[in-house]
Amino acid sequence: MKKYVFTPGPVPVPSEVLIEMAKPIIHHRTAEFESIFEEVRDGLKYIYQTKEEVFVLASSGTGAMEAAIVNTLSKGDKVLVINGGKFGERWGKIARAYGLEVEEIVVEWGTAVDPDAVKEALDNDPSIKAVLLQASETSTGVKHPTDEIAKITNQRDNVILIVDGITGVGVFPLNFDELGIDVLVGGSQKAFMLPPGLAFIALSQKAWKFSETSDLPNFYFDLKAALKSAEKNTTPWTPAVTLIIGLNEVLRRFRAEGIDNLHGRHANLSHASREALKAMNMELFAKDSHSTALTVGVAPESIGAGPIVKGLKENFGMTIAGGQDQAKGKIFRFSHIGDIEATDTIAIISAIESTLKTLGHDFDFGAGVTKATELLGK
Ligand SMILES: Cc1ncc(COP(=O)(O)O)c(C=O)c1O
């Protein structure tokens, strides 16, 4: 059976990119690699919409989250974590691992944080040094209002905004310079349509100022060392050469596509998927603000999410994600990131529709595919 990956990371990698990565390895301390890395640095600045350096780390996304903290904050600093899902929770765990004091705004799963609550927390406690946020909380499918929160942190010299954009960068606009985000993290196995193994991170001038006084221990993720090397089109340690060669190919494709079209593609697939689920008499988990990286459906109570995930896998070869923790067995998640187009999206809607029918869900059979095709067909 043909296999399809519809998880919100890892994602399908385009064959042209796989072919580039299958070529014989080159050494990283060579003019050939440096010229590739120079192009990559440029391409990443385009996707981040920034003049600042965007670093390429050989780690999964969590490594860049850790790098964000250890390069900007200091022992005993207090941070404000927006915890509305598994990844918000992770910010708190990393911060605590480094001895930071964590205040949390706990947000109900499926809803976005209210920027006024962030403002109030910062007004009430001027000792808070950073706000830690997910642009897109992948465990719930919620998009948090990064732009509104940036407006609040921009008014304060003593607070930086650290954003996990792992399923946001390349998916929807997160213009680093224009919004005034201070630290933005991305990951390769998401919109960058690569295998796992690379993470990206940029620091604003305000964040670099924080880094001057930061005293948290770091070595592998020392971004000052990374900056010195980047200026010479290299990295302090052995880079993930093969993945960077693949990244260069992806970034060329993104340039050719154009950043607005890149965001538009995700928005269209997401919109069609949400409308198709609604047409199938299904509820969406995200209540107000949807991330366009993935669609999260609430499984009918009488069925549960497990049989839907299982049915897609066994009968259609399609891997999607279920829910985690409190959402386990209740929701299912499929993605619009990676090498996924309209045809793939119509295919998964059709498979979901068929699975729901087999499982006895009451709806107008065919309504989902009709809606998806109406919205995505040419
Ligand atoms: C929003 C978000 N943050 C963090 C992570 C963790 O990234 P990684 O698994 O690459 O370490 C993920 C991965 O799914 C994610 O979606």
What report would you give on this structure?
- The model has no long low-confidence stretch (mean pLDDT 98).
- The chain has 378 residues and is of the alpha/beta class.
- The chain is globular, with a radius of gyration of 21 Å.
- The longest helix is centred in the last third of the chain and has 21 residues.
- The protein has 14 helices and 15 strands.
- Helix 4 links the parallel strand 3 and strand 4.
- Helix content is 44%, strand content 16%.
- The site of pyridoxal-5'-phosphate has 13 residues, from helix 3.
Helices and strands: which structural class?
Answer: alpha/beta
Whole-number total of structural domains: 2
Task: Look at the structure and name the CATH superfamily of the largest domain.
Answer: Type I PLP-dependent aspartate aminotransferase-like (Major domain)
Q: Low-confidence parts, pLDDT < 50 over ≥5 residues?
A: none
Helical content class: 40-55%
**β-strand number:** 15
User: What is the average per-residue confidence, as pLDDT, rounded to a whole number?
Assistant: 98
Bound molecules: pyridoxal-5'-phosphate
Series of H and E elements:
EHHEHEHEHEEEHEHEEHHHHEEHEEEHH
CATH topology of the largest domain: Aspartate Aminotransferase, domain 2
Main beta-sheet strand count, sense and barrel state:
7 strands, mixed
Second rung of CATH, namely the architecture of the largest domain: 3-Layer(aba) Sandwich
Q: Rg, please?
A: 21 Å
Side by side, the strands of the main sheet go 2-10-9-8-5-3-4
